[in-house]
Design a protein that fits this description.
The complex is a heterodimer. Chain A is mainly beta. Chain A has one helix and eight strands, in the order αββββββββ. In chain A, a hairpin with a 2-residue loop joins strand 3 (about 65-70) and strand 4. Chain B is elongated. By secondary structure, chain B is an alpha+beta fold. Chain B has a four-stranded antiparallel β-sheet with strand order 1-2-8-7, with no helix packed on it. Chain B has a three-stranded antiparallel β-sheet with strand order 3-4-6, with no helix packed on it. Classes of the chains: A mainly beta, B alpha+beta. The interface between A and B is large, with 45 and 37 residues.
């Protein structure tokens, strides 16, 4: 598992520790393993018309990013270069190394009422925003009483 | 984000101000890489969602402060169902040492990654010291 995205925050670390303890004792953890603390960090929200997913993936070349929606499961994958000097470089020293480097993949299962044909994704300031519309038939409707 | 501004507007000014002050205390700590070579230091910080105009960099005496506010367009009436980035703000403070030339710090932000270059002052650049044989 990848170390916490925001390290050194004592309260966040305690929170994470508690959560991980809970998850370890939980008899029915998610089938995809521990969700939180991975790269990229995810926020998910929704309106009555759409489901919105925000993936905080700074420094990723948008051309190498893969966003797939398959049978209601959304996956975000890509690679981020670490950009650190090689180990045998004796001219430079790495003092702090907290940023994630390497390949990543995160998966979210969306609700059943999403329409796989109307998905949009954009990348701005290091955040991938994926918007999936809900099906017409499942949107709330006002029923007039006669 | 639209929601929070709407909420604060309805409250009496004093309460809103107090809340805003309290909230400004809370910030996420961005992960960084710090690499030093012979001419200076390169610092990279992950600040996803922070546009250029919401980024604040400050060097005061020997203290470097990096602060950024997350600004993401969200559809109206959105309700969050799962949240990992809980606070829309990043802050981190570093102490620099004397050999750095704080007047020549350069910064660039691209795809949510801030790259800072802090050069060493000229007198602190490496010099080869010749050993004379007496």
């Amino acid at each position: 598992m990848y170390r916490s995205v925001f390290t050194r925050d004592v309260f966040a670390e305690l929170d994470r520790l508690q959560r991980e303890m809970q998850e370890a004792f939980d008899l029915s953890p998610s089938i995809r393993g521990v969700g939180r603390g991975g790269f990229p960090a995810l926020n998910v929200g929704g309106t009555s018309q759409s489901v919105e997913v925000y993936a905080f993936a700074p420094g990723v070349d948008p051309a190498t990013m893969e966003v797939n929606l398959d049978r209601g499961v959304l996956s975000i994958a890509g690679e981020r270069q670490a950009n650190l000097p090689p180990n045998d470089d004796d001219k430079s020293a790495v003092h702090i190394n907290e940023r994630f480097g390497g390949r990543f993949r995160r998966v979210v299962s969306l609700s059943d009422d999403v329409d796989p044909n109307s998905v949009s994704a954009d990348y701005r300031d290091g955040v991938v925003h994926i918007s999936v519309k809900r099906r017409e038939s499942s949107q709330p409707r006002r029923i007039s009483v006669k | 984000m639209n929601d929070t501004t709407a909420v604060t507007k309805n409250e009496p000014d004093a309460v809103a101000r107090k809340e805003r002050a309290q909230r400004s205390e809370v910030a996420l700590i961005p992960p960084v890489d710090v690499i030093e070579d012979s001419t200076g230091i390169t610092l990279r910080a992950d600040l996803p969602g922070v546009p250029k105009d919401r980024l604040m960099l400050q060097v005061e005496a020997d203290t470097l402060t990096i602060e950024g506010e997350v600004s993401i367009a969200m559809p109206e009436g959105m309700e969050a169902s799962y949240v990992e980035v809980t606070v829309p703000r990043f802050r981190r403070v570093f102490t620099l040492s004397k050999e750095f030339d704080t007047a020549k710090v350069s910064a660039e932000i691209k795809h949510g990654v801030l790259t800072l270059r802090i050069p060493k002052a000229e007198h602190a650049q490496p010099r080869r010291i010749e050993v004379k044989v007496a």
